[in-house]
Design brief:
With about 200 residues, the chain is mainly α. Helix content is about 70%, strand content about 0%. The chain is built from eleven helices and no strands. Helix 4 packs parallel to helix 7.
């Protein structure tokens, strides 16, 4: 049965996501995307008027998938400090997944030409994570918003960003298979994250 309407649009988006990750934005053509999606080029353009528009839609799709996969700190443990540590560990775990790094590299490569797409991706991967972590710390420890923001930024900057940058430049082992939350402790050294939280969070 032929796909139609929203089902076809979603199929095109997921196909485009895979093709962009495989070949990069610049080397991907609308002819190639139509062929991979098993639809006509005319149908492709009926849903997305340009490759740029399609890429923006893919970024929005990736954002939804990423935030759903990451969740919130409260999903990870009952004790606030451990929940925050596992959340940061999950963040690092997903950052060091090959498709995430490829998407980051693509966003950087297209930042000058498609700043909106790069900004959306940055907000999804980094901005939203920070907002969720800072909000959780503020609520759990009664911190003022500015203080919660500072602690969240300090912990992530010291424990997550260095390894992410190493992965971005190919200097850190990355996961080819999608990492699962159940294996955070096996995939990530949580000790530095726990230590950073302990050094910055209020006692008790």
């Amino acid at each position: 049965m032929a796909r139609r309407g929203d089902e076809l649009r979603d199929h095109i988006l997921f196909t485009a996501k895979n093709v962009f990750l495989e070949t990069g934005f610049e080397r991907t053509s609308m002819d190639q995307l139509a062929a991979r999606a098993e639809t006509s080029k005319r149908t492709l353009y009926a849903h997305f008027e340009s490759k740029d528009k399609l890429f923006l839609a893919v970024v929005d799709l990736v954002r939804e998938l990423y935030l759903d996969r990451l969740g919130t700190p409260g999903d990870y443990a009952e004790e606030p400090a451990e929940a925050a540590a596992l959340y940061c560990g999950r963040f690092l775990q997903t950052l060091l997944w090959e498709p995430t790094l490829r998407m980051c590299r693509m966003g950087i490569a297209e930042a000058e030409r498609l700043p909106e797409a790069s900004a959306r991706y940055h907000d999804a991967v980094f901005g939203s994570m920070h907002v969720r972590l800072a909000g959780f710390l503020g609520e759990s420890y009664g911190l003022a918003p500015g203080e919660a923001d500072r602690i969240a930024y300090d912990v992530v900057a010291r424990t997550v960003h260095p390894r992410f940058l190493r992965g971005l430049f190919g200097m850190e082992p990355v996961a080819a298979e999608r990492p699962e939350a159940a294996t955070i402790a096996a995939d990530v050294d949580l000790a530095p994250i726990r230590a950073a939280l302990a050094a910055t969070l209020p006692a008790g």
